[in-house]
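Researcher: Can you fold this with uridine-5'-diphosphate-xylopyranose in place?
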Amino acid sequence: MNLSVIGGTGYVGLTAAVCLASKGHLVFCVGRNEEKVSKINMGIPIIYEENLEKLLNDALEKKKLVATTNLKDAVKESDVSFICVGTQSMEDGSIDLGQVEGASVEIGQALGEKEGYHVVTVKSTVVPGTTEDFVVPILERFSGKKAGVDFGVCVNPEFLREGRAIRDFLFPKDTGIVIGALDERSSSFLLEIFKEFDGEIMETSLRCAEMVKYARNAYLAKDISFANEIANICQKIGVDYLEVRKGMEMDVRIGKGRFLDAGVGFGGSCFPKDVQALVSKSVQSEIKPRMLEATLKVNEEQPFMAVRLTKQVLGALRGKKIAVLGMAFKPGTDDMREAPSVRIVNALLSEGAEVAVYDPIALNSARKIFGDKVIYKKRVAEALNKADACVIATEWKEFAEPSIYNNMRGRVIIDGRRVLDPRKLPQGFIYHAIGFPKAVKT
Ligand code: UDX
């Protein structure tokens, strides 16, 4: 099939585009920014994601992917278009539909000029009802055509985890594929595309597909906040959360592999924004979202737990040299959106500490946030050199290696992600962690 991906230079869009092209479809990757578009056409992915560069170059070589700024021509030449534009949070927590609106207007205009049937698919995360009540009326108005008659409409939420987005897209065994459709004809196109992928397919309404995405993310975020709250209690009452978790997981109703890693909280482009948007939608719908609000509240406070532990061990932080290890909101990405590290660094700075930061790939992102307020170190050993304490904010594998901490001055380690086993540390360290009963001397 010929497909167009609107917002194809963004994270979800580019991932979708290269994966769909790898299945043999001809994909038009539509973006607004000419520089990004030409980079993609040169085989340079503008975001970091495992395997993305290779798949992009394969697709370009096989002439299965073309990046373009011309949305109308892309839509006219394709059977299905995927809207993958961003839906950022606004001040009140609701999502900004500006880009979805812009894309819908242009797709509508293209449909007006196009002969033949076309399926518009919303992949951007939008609150339930948006496709039916907002996107479809725009498409109809600007095309002069009727949804369900002249063109089809689907919702196909993405469940991609950063750092393994390509794998998640190509092998959706863990997440399944959700297809919300206006009618059978619309869904038949997406079924045809996704039959190539190994994952359970659920067909449902547009509204339900939109809600599934929010319900999943809210559920997972709630688990993390729950884990953090339990870990905070464990710490106060002097038990190790990791032991408690082991005991919890023995119950099959809880099970292993849940989102129960306690630490400095969740970040990223999805959980904070999506839970916030669902809160906003609930309030509009006159439902008081107590669980969702609590999920966010616990998460906002959790990074400060790492700062509290640092002060507990070190006393006043003024003038102290502190290394913060890990800037990205999780390993495998350079993304710092809503990263707990931001709150940690800012809190340490406001306490008067001198902060050095290290991350294997997110230092450029960090620079954009902290400017000259912190010292950037390209190697972990340099960040730790002569530090009074360090705070681990992202669970990069290299932080689990005890020998990297040897050149610290103060030898205080605050483990915000439980990456280190204190029993493996050499003598002379003070180790404390979130969910750990008390600081221990090794
Ligand atoms: C998430 C969803 O997993 C994905 O399905 C959705 O489409 C987008 O949002 P992502 O944001 O890439 O994916 O990362 P994820 O691995 O889910 O982690 C999100 C945050 O939660 C990270 O900051 C991570 O450190 C934190 N986390 C995760 C915990 O603190 N504890 C856990 O047990 C799991």
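Model: Folded with uridine-5'-diphosphate-xylopyranose in place. The mean pLDDT is 96.
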